[in-house]
Design brief:
Distance between the termini: 19 Å
Number of strands: 0
Number of helices: 15
Shape: globular
């Protein structure tokens, strides 16, 4: 098979920017939007995030099954980018819309729109990620694909969402108007980027037709121990940045007393993320994706914890330590997505049943579970601390937000390092798997 061209990887990876303009707007601002703009209590927000993930436990594997068994002139996975982009971004607008409703009506509206968003997100993001498994079987090419994807998903999207959205919202008379218009602009951009990825992506790896049935979904997941370990690590790693991003605006607005510092903070993080994205392919090539993921997780834990002990008036030091943590976090984000396609071949080798959709569906479910876990823990902790929107923080609420911004992410990242100790799918084993699978295909 011919090596992938850089332009092929670039065009495919634009889709991750499209997905993350949507995904990160939700991750950064929806909890704040619900509590401080729409007027829903933090307790209801915590419950909403958990209930939505219960539905995903059913929805995601079924979507993986459907994607695996899809037949179309465009392949198995690409058509979902074409037909799913508009529904995904229309429901984004609904999430940031504020209809005049009673308190109960607002909660019901939030539940309905957020759960539908989760369904649409799976409809697009799962097939999109699955394309990477049928673009190449080369481990280093997969690491490069993951690097491009994370550059767009984290560096570019972070610059747009983390740095640009709040100043953009401030241009409007109310936050209600600002967030809705921001969702409109980002949603339209997302559609264009996803369609670009659809038109220029190719499913290049020829694989056997999928023959498994719905009843096989759970065994396919359970027997793939490499997938289970990696998904557990990804859940914890995702919880790190979801928690930090979700409480960042609360931290700067209430603890440090200046909401505008949030944009400055993420502007400073951009060079760290860019450098991390640039360096990661060289690190993974030298040390492997697993070791890169493990030791970077430990680094994130150390620097997140150390930030907790820096005085509030030492902003330069807070930003510097955060930048180092963000630099290490890029290693984790790139490595995990580069490792996921390897578990597809591992599962095929171990069970005799090949599925791209199910491993990616399980990963998608765990990613959204991390959002729910982190979001619910943060929201419920703030509720218990006595947090009330747009008022002076109590001592308990102040302490809680500080812990959520610093110590809780450090705990998640430490646990991620421990989980990765159980991951055994290294380079030599993967090469053996590819050789044996290729030999079987030639004989058949």
């Amino acid at each position: 098979m011919l090596a992938l061209k850089q332009k092929d990887i670039f065009r495919y990876s634009l889709g991750d920017l499209g997905i993350n303009l949507n995904f990160q707007l939700i991750g950064f601002y929806l909890a704040y939007f619900y509590t401080d703009v729409f007027g829903i209590s933090a307790a209801h927000v915590a419950g909403l995030f958990l209930v939505a993930r219960i539905w995903d436990a059913v929805n995601d594997p079924i979507m993986g099954f459907i994607a695996d068994h899809t037949k179309s002139p465009w392949g198995r996975f690409r058509p979902y980018l074409l037909f799913g982009a508009i529904p995904l971004n229309l429901i984004l607008l609904a999430c940031f819309y504020t209809p005049e409703l009673s308190d109960t009506g607002k909660v019901i509206y939030a539940y309905v729109t957020y759960i539908i968003h989760g369904v649409c997100f799976t409809l697009v993001s799962l097939p999109y990620s699955s394309i990477s498994a049928v673009m190449t079987q080369d481990q280093q090419e997969r690491a490069v694909i993951s690097t491009y994807r994370m550059f767009f998903a984290v560096v570019v999207a972070l610059g747009i969402i983390g740095v640009g959205v709040k100043p953009f919202v401030n241009l409007f008379a109310t936050e209600q108007q600002g967030f809705f218009v921001a969702a409109c602009v980002l949603g339209a951009s997302s559609v264009i980027l996803l369609w670009t990825s659809f038109f220029f992506s190719k499913e290049r790896v020829e694989v056997p037709a999928e023959k498994y049935h719905l009843k096989d979904i759970i065994p396919i997941i359970i027997k793939n121990d490499a997938l289970l370990v990696l998904a557990g690590a990804m859940l914890l790693n995702t919880a790190v940045w979801v928690t930090g991003n979700a409480v960042a605006l609360y931290y700067f607005k209430y603890v440090l007393g200046n909401a505008d510092l949030q944009s400055t903070f993420f502007m400073v993080m951009l060079p760290a993320n860019m450098l991390g994205a640039f360096v990661t392919p060289f690190i993974t090539k030298r040390f492997g994706k697993l070791k890169t993921f493990m030791w970077a997780s430990l680094g994130v834990a150390i620097f997140s914890l150390s930030r907790h002990f820096i005085p509030d008036d030492q902003l330069t030091l807070i930003f510097a330590v955060s930048g180092i943590s963000s630099f290490a976090m890029m290693f984790c984000s790139i490595a995990q997505w580069g490792m996921l396609p390897d578990t597809v071949e591992y599962g095929h080798w171990k069970t005799g049943q090949r599925s791209e959709g199910i491993p990616f569906a399980f990963f998608s479910f765990m990613q959204k579970s991390a959002m729910a876990l982190a979001g619910s823990v943060a929201a419920y902790a703030m509720f218990l601390s006595g947090y009330e929107a747009n008022t002076v923080l109590t001592a308990s609420a102040d302490k809680t937000i500080r812990w959520l911004f610093n110590i809780v992410p450090a705990i998640y990242s430490s646990l991620c390092f421990i989980v990765l100790l159980f991951y055994k799918l290294d380079g030599p084993l993967y090469k053996k798997i590819i050789t044996e699978l290729s030999s079987k295909e030639l004989k058949s």
